[in-house]
Structures are given as structure tokens and as C-alpha cells.
Design brief:
A 5-stranded mixed sheet has the order 6-5-7-9-8, with helices on both faces. By secondary structure, the protein is of the alpha/beta class. The protein contains 10 helices and 9 strands. The longest helix has 22 residues. The chain is 43% helix and 18% strand.
Length: 257
């Protein structure tokens, strides 16, 4: 079954409660013929770490927000929580959602794992918006998925704004990506779904020969790859890295700002 604005596919997206980046970036990444609906993950815990764990612990209850909407896949657009629950916990969560809904499910982290594997990347460079505590959990997660963390760069900054990640500007990610120039890496991955990343990829799609990805780019790619065989290839992913389709929408959005 399709709906009027999504004849090719409808994605259900779960977004952390204060995240201001997921919805704008998924809108820019989504090609014509596809659409998405959003639900917010909400927690009253008083630290970022506690909230991230709480988001995942609440499933499957949040699935009720989509009721019987005919979604073709479900994305949990969150990456940091995957580090904290670990590889096995993430795999169990995804399997549980897929069993209950009958559609594919993925997280920001698992979509990024799939993209890195599609590229054949082993040595990766990470660009992090996190503080040092979550960075330590992050490295362990990527190593558990079979990658070697060969380089790291930080875009994190202490902030008096509402959130130290969501209040980052677009240049923060780009500066951090460029700092990895000359490193022996197969791919660059910008972490998190809260740090704005599309401008950075549009400006710097490769560091040397290493493609530059972000968790949100991988979420968008994975959603379409599940429905479109041409996208579900290495060449298809590299077209996304080069901004095929979405970079034009990004430029138009800046022109309207």
C-alpha cells in the first residue's frame, strides 16, 4: 500500500526529543517519490547518557506513535544510544522491532555500519560531536563492528546554548573533517544525528580517496537502498556522497534562507 506523497516508499523516523537536525536533513536527503513521518523519543532523565539509554529501553512502546501507518521501514535516528547498549543490545532491539512490525529497521549506527561495509572500509576516521566520555564508548562500538578507528577529530565544544551538539554550526563538522587530511583511512564518518553535516559533505565529499559520510547521510541512503536496487550498491552510495540529488536541494534551501 502506498500513500499520495510516497508512491515509492514511506519511512518512519524516530528522533531524539530536542534534536533539531534529523528532520531538516532527512527532508533534504529524501528524493521525490519517497516520504517520511516522524515521532519523537522522549525521556525525563537528567543526563545525556541516561536519556540515550532510556530512549532504547522504552521500545517497543514508541512504535504505537505510528499506529497503522503503512511505513516500509523504521529508522531510529540516533547513534549515541547504540554505543551505550552495545552491539548485541542494538542487534536485539532491531530484531525485536522487525518482528513486531514486519518491516526493516535500523539505527543511525547500524545504517552507518552497512554503508562502511558497502564501501569496503576497514580503517575509519571519526569526526565526533561528543564529549570525551561518550567518545570512549563510541570507539569501542565501531571496533566491535569490525572497524579499526585509525583517526579521530573532535567538533565538540562546550556551549551555553540549549545543547552542545545540536547548537553546533555547519562549519564545525567541515573543519574537523579537513583536519583528517593525510591520514591513512578508508572512509570518514561524522558521528551523531544532531550535528549538521550535509554542508560539510557537499563541500568536502572526499578526504584524499576516503569518502566522507555522516550518520544522517547513511540513514537516508539506507532508507532508499531498501527500496531501490541501484542505490543499494557501492556506486549508488558514492553517488550519495557526491551529493546526487540532495546537494541541489541543499543549495535551494540556502537560497531561500
Amino acid at each position: 500500500m502506498s500513500v499520495a506523497y510516497a508512491p515509492k516508499g514511506l519511512l518512519g523516523v524516530f528522533t531524539p526529543q530536542a534534536n533539531t537536525t534529523v528532520e531538516p536533513e532527512i527532508a533534504l536527503l529524501t528524493p521525490p517519490g519517497y516520504a517520511w513521518i516522524n515521532a519523537r523519543m522522549v525521556s525525563d532523565k537528567d543526563t545525556i547518557t541516561a536519556r540515550l539509554i532510556d530512549y532504547m529501553a522504552q521500545f517497543p512502546a514508541p512504535l504505537a506513535q505510528f499506529a497503522n501507518a503503512p511505513v516500509d521501514a523504521i529508522a531510529i535516528a540516533c547513534t549515541g544510544a547504540s554505543y551505550l547498549i552495545g552491539r548485541d543490545g542494538e542487534d536485539a532491539l532491531i530484531a525485536n522491532i522487525e518482528t513486531r512490525t514486519g518491516v526493516p529497521a535500523f539505527t543511525g549506527a547500524s545504517a552507518s555500519v552497512d554503508a562502511l561495509r558497502m564501501l569496503g572500509a576497514q580503517r575509519i576516521g571519526l569526526v565526533s560531536p561528543y564529549n570525551s566520555a561518550l567518545d570512549a564508548e563510541s570507539a569501542g562500538y565501531w571496533e566491535s563492528r569490525g572497524f579499526t578507528v585509525a583517526a579521530e577529530a573532535s567538533a565538540y565544544r562546550e556551549s551555553s546554548d540549549f545543547h552542545p551538539i545540536y547548537s553546533l554550526d555547519a562549519l564545525a563538522a567541515e573543519r574537523a573533517v579537513k583536519s583528517l587530511e593525510g591520514r591513512d583511512i578508508d572512509a570518514v564518518l561524522m558521528l551523531g544525528t544532531g550535528m549538521p553535516t550535509l554542508d560539510a559533505i557537499a563541500h568536502v565529499p572526499f578526504i584524499g580517496k576516503a569518502p566522507v559520510l555522516s550518520c544522517m547521510l547513511c540513514v537516508g541512503w539506507k532508507a532508499i537502498a531498501l527500496r531501490d536496487p541501484a542505490t543499494a550498491t557501492r556506486d549508488g552510495l558514492l553517488r550519495w556522497v557526491k551529493g546526487d540529488g540532495w546537494s541541489e536541494r541543499l543549495e535551494r534551501s540556502h537560497a531561500l534562507a
